[in-house]
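Service request form, structural biology core

Requester: graduate student, group of Dr. S.
Request type: structure prediction, single chain
Budget code: on file
Notes: please return the result as structure tokens.

Sequence provided:
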Amino acid sequence: MPATSKRTGAIVSSAPNASISGSATTTPSGLDHPHCAMVRVLRIRLQGEGGVTSRTTDTHRRDDHVSEIDLTAALTRLEAAMGALRGRLRERLSVSGSDLTVLQFVARAAAAERRVRVKDLVSHLGLTGPAITGTVDRLERAGHLCRVPNPDDGRSRFIELTPETQRAYAVAMDSTNEHLHELLSSFSERESDRYVRVIDRVVEALEHGAPTP
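Core staff response, request fulfilled:
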């Protein structure tokens, strides 16, 4: 039977046991969602202003402000929301999921005033140079990307979104960005920094297992 969070009322579905860094993890009743393996190892304790104050593998203690099931339910909702957002972007831009990943990377780099080269995409996506080059060629033919000269190296090119795709991407993201801006503006700079670090720790744990102190 699915487990229900007493705190949030969210239902957490059952899934096969997960393992982290090659070690099998046995999941207790009600905590057999894949994210829970990470939660038990990392045990993020959100207290005070949202900082990570400690980590422990004790799964029986319930004195945390956020329980394992609460955190797992929140991660599941976040995953679903991100999936829905990507679905809207794919529909708006008429691209596949893998192509959207490339466009999002280029868009985020542009927002941070960073220039993107093929080797940056290779490093980010973990694919081969020829595979990335083929993807960029396809997106360029579709009118989503363009190559511009690198003034410091005549042999290389920077990759940018075309003006049309920039506008389409901005329109698709407007509502989301508006809500995010409203949320972030309610936090102090210190709180925002703490929350970003918490998210980074969760992502690192999900991808590679819990970070060492």
